[in-house]
Amino acid sequence: MNSESAMGLTHRQDATVYWQEFSVPYVYPVAFVRGLFAPENPLFADVLARKEPAKRHRCFFVLDEGTVRAMPGLVPSLLAYAQSHSDRIDLIADPMILPGGEIVKNELAHVERMQDAIHAHAIDRHSYVIAIGGGAILDAVGLAAATAHRGVRHIRVPTTVLSQNDSGVGVKNAVNFKGIKNYVGTFAPPWAVLNDFEFLEHLPRRERIAGIAEAVKVALIRDRDFYLWLEENADALATFRPDAEEHMIRRSAELHMRQIAHGGDPFELGSARPLDFGHWSAHKLEAMTHHHVRHGEAVAIGIALDARYSVLAGLLTEGEEERIVVLLENLGLRIWHPALENAAPGGELALLKGLAEFQEHLGGELTITLLKDLGVGHEVHQMDLDRVRQALAWLKAREKA
Questions:
Q1: Do 145 and 188 touch, CB atoms closer than 8 A?
Q2: Could you tell me the fold of the domain covering 30-202?
Q3: Which residues form the 3-dehydroquinate synthase C-terminal domain (predicted)?
Q4: First to last CA, the chain
Q5: Where in the chain is the domain with CATH 3.40.50.1970?
Q6: Rg for the chain (alpha carbons), in Å?
Q7: What 8-state DSSP symbol labels residue 227?
Q8: Which residues pair with 180 in a beta bridge?
């Protein structure tokens, strides 16, 4: 069989078809460290120089305003680091400071401002744009870097639990548009991801806890042993014991990286998104609450909802959803929010529109990841709305118990 017929094309007298095929390897370091910008630590400078060791590298920093506010010494430490490694670092301008959270993703003007700066400072494909902040800043800066000159080198320095254990190690960049989450974006792997655990010590408790939800998510669909470890270490995680927190982040990041590299669809060309277990409702809940519910908090609720639905659908053994909810609660996460009962025009639950929006964002057939067991995800292509309502009722009753 020739390649044309294999692809569903037949020979035509009036057409010549050539098949172009090539692959592009993506290789980038994901590092975990303490004191990334301590002058005596060469890691950052080494990452800059990994392809061209004998030159000074032009660098432009974009910082999360919340991170700068929590760490007033950050900018001086960056300047001191650049001075200490001036043989390899050329700091071409003062750092740009932008609002973090969904603010930076909701207004395209912030992306345009970054692109203006990239142009004004003549940042080319051999220069670096370095983002330091939470997942929203990493997304927005990544989009600006990926679309300037069709892609300039971009380094991520995640500063939150969620961005270190999940979003920061991935290959996606995006901002919101017309109220639709991550509508404008790219798939553009970074030059490097450098995770400094010291940033976590400056996070509010609420943010630090919320990020653990993504570790629970990936453990539930990919690694039973890691899930059991989370159960055993819930108290240590909830009190931010460094050894437990750091292991949780590293293992979660490893599992996310493995799925991206070996799951067969790193740029999401198909219909399945297993790493979005619990996310169809989480994304909708975030929008419904105007992001007053944090992403990780919404994901925790989405996990609980889909775990109960998995039981109702006969996939997951009854009682396992209770076990999952107990873990989430022991970590300090809630499983209910009043907005889950909000009605759309016509009286239907507004949350249910999240299914159509989830499908529309990816395209293809609806594909939702549910659970067959702890550590075993299972894809389905339809959701029974009555079961979703029953699962919501269970969550509400469980929250009030």
A1: yes
A2: Rossmann fold (3.40.50)
A3: 211-340
A4: 63
A5: 30-202
A6: 22
A7: H
A8: 177
DSSP codes joined into one string, 276-344: GTTHHHHHHHHHHTTT-S-HHHHHHHHHHHHHHHHHHTTSS-TTHHHHHHHHHHHTT--S--GGGGPBP
Cβ neighbours for 388, distance < 8 A, ≥ 6 positions apart: 305, 309, 351, 352
Cα dist from 251 to 224, 302, 378, whole Å: 12, 21, 21
DSSP symbols for 240-268? T-HHHHHHHHHHHHHHHHHHHHHSS-TT-
pLDDT in tens, the chain (401 residues): 445 445 555 566 678 888 999 988 999 999 999 999 999 999 999 999 999 998 999 999 999 999 999 999 999 999 999 999 999 999 999 999 999 988 999 989 999 999 999 999 999 999 999 999 999 999 999 999 999 999 999 999 999 999 999 999 999 999 988 878 888 999 999 999 999 999 999 999 999 999 999 999 999 999 999 999 999 999 999 999 999 999 999 999 999 999 999 988 888 888 788 899 999 999 999 999 999 999 999 999 999 999 999 999 999 999 999 999 999 999 999 999 999 999 999 889 999 999 999 998 777 899 999 999 999 999 999 999 999 999 999 999 988 76
Find tokens 């792997």 and name the residue. Answer: 189
Identify the three-state secondary structure at position 218.
Answer: helix
**Pairwise CA distance, residues 209 & 220, whole Å:** 18
The domain 205-260+270-400 having CATH identifier 1.20.1090.10: the answer here is: yes
- For residue 168, the 8-state DSSP code is G
Backbone angles phi and psi of 166, in degrees to 5: -145, -85
Cβ contact 325:398 at 8 Å: yes
d(CA 86, CA 372): 54
